[in-house]
Design goal:
alpha/beta, 334 residues, 9-stranded mixed β-sheet, Rossmann fold
Length: 334
């Protein structure tokens, strides 16, 4: 799914956007009520190990996965990752290995599995219990901020500052998963995951004026180099322009940039079209780690991959935020 243009903060004055938003507003009220009711009436269950949730306030594209990977690395080898396995068919709990098929377990869990023990489970509490029984000293949950079934010891919200909270409306009239005030009240910290844009051209952050908890800043940086040749880039992300901007900032020679929807399942026709584009430009195909996880081994061998990492501006502030989790890990396991 690609986010519609009227979700953005800067299209509020357009007549078509206002009309469509008005038509969708009753559905937004129902969606917000259902989410609030579920959060209010569900009693969370506690796992034996501390749970850190990396979630977001909006639908897709905030950078949860790179933030979760960076925090998991900060906690060390005793941390396991837990996610729903979005896009996969397996319900779990299941421990994911890097050689599994994204159609079965989803693409993001395959990235987590490269870092160490990773689990998927539609039932988050069952997944946390499986991880704890397998020796997890801490559980980093990728997404699930609006899922109340598993108690969180630390809830961190990832924000793409170039998008913010869009028009501030709840889905489907806007990108929010719940009312903004409700989400901010449950968050223990916010991570602003910056890309190419600078603070001078970011959307208004007036929506943060009542948030007085830690706000950390991180940057999405490539952890590899782009091939020194002409490229045809493609990405199936909620905001594929973030990947294209990264290549641009690196000075890569991109002849074509082809966007697809988030978690797009690449067909042979898609890949044949991309191969034709590469041939026309005498170029190499390049994509993200997340997209490469959805390719067959044969196609993966034909495509360059640019990994990215979330690097925190103030690592001491991140360590301070994680200190209570580390203390529990140390006291429980020496």
């Amino acid at each position: 799914m690609r986010p519609p243009e009227f979700w953005k903060a800067d299209v509020g004055g357009r007549d078509a956007a206002l009309v469509l938003r008005a038509l969708l507003t009753p559905l937004s009220w129902a969606y917000a009520f259902a989410t609030a009711h579920r959060l209010r009436t569900t009693t969370p269950r506690h796992a034996p190990a501390p749970v850190i949730c990396i979630g977001n306030l909006t639908v897709g594209g905030a950078g949860k996965t790179p933030v979760a990977r960076a925090i998991r690395a900060r906690l060390g080898s005793g941390a396991h990752t837990l996610s729903r396995g979005y896009g996969g068919r397996v319900e779990g709990p299941l421990r994911v290995t890097p050689d599994m098929d994204a159609r079965e377990v989803g693409d993001e869990p395959l990235l987590h599995a490269r870092d160490g023990p990773a689990w998927i489970a539609r039932d988050r509490f069952a997944g946390a219990m499986a991880a704890a029984q397998a020796g997890a000293h801490a559980i980093v949950m990728d997404d699930g901020f609006q899922n109340p079934s598993l108690a969180k010891d630390l809830s961190i919200v990832a924000i793409d500052p170039a998008f913010g909270v869009g028009n501030g409306q709840v889905f489907p009239a806007g990108p929010l998963r719940e009312r903004l005030a409700n989400g901010l009240a449950r968050a223990d910290a916010i991570v602003m995951l910056h890309g190419k844009r600078t603070a001078d051209d970011l959307p208004d952050r007036n929506w943060l004026r009542h948030f007085h908890k830690p706000i950390l800043h991180a940057r999405l940086e490539p952890s590899g180099i782009a091939p020194d040749r002409t490229l045809v880039a493609f990405a199936g992300l909620a905001r594929p322009d973030k990947f294209f901007d990264t290549l641009d900032a690196m000075g890569a020679k991109v002849a074509e940039a082809v966007p697809f929807g988030d978690h797009h399942v690449y067909s042979e026709e898609d890949l044949a079209m991309l191969a034709r584009l590469a041939e026309e430009h005498e170029a190499m195909l390049i994509t993200t780690e997340k997209d490469a996880a959805r390719l067959s081994p044969e196609w993966r061998a034909r495509v360059a991959v640019l990994p990215v990492t979330a690097r925190f501006d103030d690592e001491a502030a991140l360590d301070a935020l994680l200190a209570p989790i580390r203390s529990r890990m140390n006291s429980a396991h020496g």
